[in-house]
Write a structure and sequence with these properties.
The complex is a heterotrimer of chains A (352), B (121) and C (311). Helices cover 44% and strands 20% of the residues of chain B. Chain B contains five helices and five strands. Chain C is of the alpha/beta class. In chain C, helix 3 packs across helix 5 and helix 6 packs across helix 7. Classes of the chains: A alpha+beta (352), B alpha/beta (121), C alpha/beta (311). Chains A and B meet through helix 1 and helix 2 of A and helix 1 of B.
């Protein structure tokens, strides 16, 4: 029943993505012989969208059909791209839906400590020195449990670089997320201009030492857009490029909920697109490329690939505007976890 | 593995249909018109043929007639895949030797269903 | 979530979603999943718009506060609507063609037989039954087949009555020969021809509780729905269906479905799972203890003398 719809939705999005990528490659979708095919594809999309009650895909296909008959090439091309983005977004929503949610387990004191540590771990690197100082004091309570020993000497553990007074108690080590191994790469001159290239050996993991970019004094008054929204278009473009050269790639990104101005986003999109396109087309072959990840690291955007670990650092001209670290939504949960840390009963229970 | 010959002068149709047919477990071969398809059938007769009607050089209708008249030509399952919806033309296509008939536009469900009806999957 | 749900689809609060899940279970006996809220929203948004509600919440409020039973059925119908196509269950239709119709013809010779498509959705199953019977008309010589198709009231049922299907609908499951024999091409759609349409009558009914309003049938086809019912609903619906099948009549279930431990007076046909024949029920007449029944004697010979003491 609903499962049938999900099954159909998966096939539908796959076929739709294929068809749209081919249409996007056409020199002239209105050419004799091509136009009937494009129209047929839009009708098929509408039919599938109607069945799935996907209104935006339906209307997106309608817009393309309308543009085929009444609009210029640029409008038609834009509407085809928009439809592609909507289909990609739908496919992403479907993937989320098909993921099996983890069964929530009862939180033990260990769990609570871990949750608190992970929460603070995410916040501390972004914290201003005085805030970080305050947050780190909260971690002063001894947290060694019977089951856990802090692995201060383990090479994979990295202590966050924050302005901590030497008088503070020991900062607990936080777990570090493993990054793919980078390797050397030589890129075209166009990419080097304004970018921060790092050349690394295959075996090493480079520490993040990207310079902090100072904010420009020019005030950009265009509206804010989230980097997530920008990345959706970047991903769609990259997938289209990959298909056109017969490469199979997967992409992921983490923009840490950041936003930037519309103008800057447009600029970033173009530069990211060029970098990804070059990576996909020239620098990697089918047996080398696997996964491409784009993420925010400090004030830079990093592109990393899973198998070859290419890293191209893109310095935006101005730093993206960061969202406040502690919002109204996160404050409540954070206070609860901080209270748990300061709870004399739980401290007694976990003291070694 | 079974093979399917996809005969259409549109590259996009060949690609989209090819993807659907590959998902059904077939190896695909492409031909751009009826004559090209006949040549390819002489090299190796496929298990299934998905054929358009209107094509330059030789159209699908003539191709099917010539195929059925050729040695081993009765073996492949032939499925027309065309924009032609006229009932009389459909009757003619079946009389010429087609096993099934798909009217464009099609989606993956339609191809899968028609292949199942024809005993291919 | 997808763009479609973020931008413009109405949305349901979790409490409403839970209430709708309970309603669907009670009315239709069908479980909705834990994480299908987004699909539920898109299905009901369309119904809400069609019914003239400003929001999904407004429609659900109307449902729960005013107890609008017809709206409840329409909502449940929208939620339990499933994808179907012509001749979806090949095994069931094969049994209809090879076992049921020939046997009914053999037993009855001529006359009329009534078949039921239970839970007919968009009508493809019912029209499929009609096409099967029509294509066998020479073999079923003199046997007239009528089909009744029932389901909850819904927009889908209304479309089924029209017998009009899209270009996509008629190419799934329907052999091309049957398409050109039994359908007319009208604009870009295909419409069932009169010789098929007049064999089928569509009726709205509550599938779990209003079956006594229906006649009884020589064969009932009930395919593809049984696995979606909760266990109690399964018992309820099968019990209801049992009363609809005439003695020696047939119950055809879907591929892989069975009555399992419950048989309600049916026997398997040729030991096959999924097709059953109803046993004849012999009802012993009730004996009225006050009713005097002649004992067959015609004289007082051998009569026993019973002396009663009155003291």
């Amino acid at each position: 029943m609903i499962g049938d719809d999900l099954n159909f939705a998966q096939k539908f999005t796959r076929t739709a993505a294929d068809g749209l990528s081919l249409i996007a490659e056409m020199d002239d979708p209105r050419a004799t012989g091509e136009s009937a095919v494009v129209i047929d594809m839009m009708v098929t999309l509408q039919r599938g969208a109607k069945r799935l009650r996907a209104r935006h895909i339906y209307s997106g296909a309608q817009n393309v059909l309308s543009a085929m008959h009444h609009e210029d090439n640029q409008t038609l091309s834009g509407r085809i791209d928009n439809l592609g983005s909507v289909v990609t977004e739908y496919a992403r929503g479907l993937e989320e839906l098909l993921q099996v949610p983890e069964t929530p387990s009862v939180a033990t004191p260990n769990d609570k400590w871990e949750t608190a540590r992970e929460t603070l771990n995410e916040i501390l690197p972004k914290a201003a020195p005085e805030t970080a100082d305050m947050l780190s004091r909260l971690m002063r309570a001894p947290v060694v449990t019977e089951a856990q020993v802090p692995e201060l000497d383990a090479p994979e553990i990295k202590t966050p670089k924050i302005g901590v007074s030497n008088l503070d108690a020991e900062i607990l080590p936080f777990k570090r997320i493993e990054k793919p191994t980078p390797s050397q790469i030589a890129l075209a001159d166009t990419l080097k201009d304004g970018f921060n290239l790092s050349s690394e050996s295959d075996a090493q993991i480079q520490q993040d030492t990207a310079p902090v970019i100072t904010k420009a004094s020019v005030i950009d008054e265009s509206p804010l857009v989230t980097l997530d929204a920008m990345m959706r278009d970047v991903v769609a473009d990259a997938l289209s490029v990959a298909r056109s050269v017969g490469r199979t790639i997967s992409l992921s990104y983490d923009m840490e909920d950041r936003s930037t101005s519309e103008t800057r986003a447009e600029n970033l999109r173009g530069r990211l697109g060029k970098a990804l396109s070059q990576i996909i087309r020239q620098s990697l072959t089918n047996d080398r490329i696997g996964h491409i990840d784009v993420n925010v690291a400090g004030e830079q955007l990093h592109i990393m690939t899973g198998t070859t670990a290419l890293r191209v650092a893109i310095d935006p001209e101005e730093a993206p505007a960061a969202k406040p670290m502690i919002t109204k939504e996160s404050e409540k949960g954070l206070r609860a976890q901080l209270n748990a840390l300061l709870d004399p009963v739980s401290m007694h229970e976990t003291a070694s | 593995m079974k093979t399917c010959l996809i005969v259409d002068d549109s590259r996009m149709i060949r690609r989209v249909a090819g993807r659907i047919v590959k998902d059904l477990g077939f190896e695909t071969v492409e031909a751009i018109n009826g004559q090209d398809a006949l040549d390819k059938c002489l090299i190796e007769m496929p298990h299934a043929i998905l054929v358009d009607w209107a094509m330059p050089v030789m159209d699908g209708f003539d191709f099917v007639k010539k195929l059925r008249a050729s040695p081993q030509g009765d073996k492949p399952i032939v499925v027309f895949c065309t924009s032609v919806r006229d009932v009389q033309r459909i009757v003619e296509a079946l009389a010429a030797g087609a096993d099934e008939y798909i009217m464009k536009p099609f989606d993956s469900d339609i191809i899968e269903s028609k292949f199942a009806l024809a005993g291919l999957v | 979530m997808s763009a479609d749900t973020r931008q413009g689809a109405m949305s349901l609060q979790p409490s409403y979603y839970d209430a709708l899940r309970r309603l669907t279970l009670e009315l239709a006996g069908v479980h909705l999943g834990d994480n299908h809220a987004f699909l539920v929203e898109t299905r009901l948004s369309r119904l809400a718009r069609g019914q003239g509600f400003d929001s999904l919440e407004a429609m659900v409020n109307e449902l729960f506060m005013k107890g609008a039973s017809r709206l409840a059925l329409q909502i449940v119908s929208a939620l339990t609507e499933r994808d179907t196509h012509f001749f979806k269950d090949e095994t069931a239709f094969k049994r209809l063609r090879e076992i049921v119709l020939p046997d009914l013809h053999r037993k009855r010779g001529g006359g009329r037989v009534q078949l039921l498509s239970f839970g007919c959705a968009s009508g493809q199953e019912a029209y499929g039954m009609a096409m099967t019977a029509y294509d066998m008309r020479k073999e079923l010589d003199e046997l007239k087949v009528d089909i009744v198709a029932v389901d909850y009231p819904s927009q889908v049922l209304e479309r089924a009555k029209n017998g009009r299907y899209t270009h996509f609908d008629v190419q799934r499951g329907l052999p091309i020969q049957k398409l050109i024999t039994h359908f007319d091409s009208v604009d870009s759609d295909w419409v069932v021809k009169d010789h098929i349409k007049e064999m089928v009558e569509f009726k709205e009914t509550h599938l779990l509780s209003k079956l006594d309003e229906l006649d009884d049938f020589h064969a009932v086809m009930f395919c593809g729905s049984l696995p979606h019912y909760s266990a109690p609903a399964r018992v309820r619906v099968l019990r209801g269906l049992t009363n609809l099948v005439k003695d020696h009549g047939y119950l055809i279930l879907g591929e892989g479905e069975s009555l399992s431990q419950m048989n309600f007076g049916f026997d398997r046909v040729d030991n096959q799972q999924g097709i059953y024949i109803k046993r004849e029920v012999i009802i012993e007449p009730e004996i009225d203890p006050d009713l005097k029944v002649h004992n067959g004697r015609t004289s007082f010979q051998k009569a026993k003398v019973i002396r009663k003491s009155l003291t």
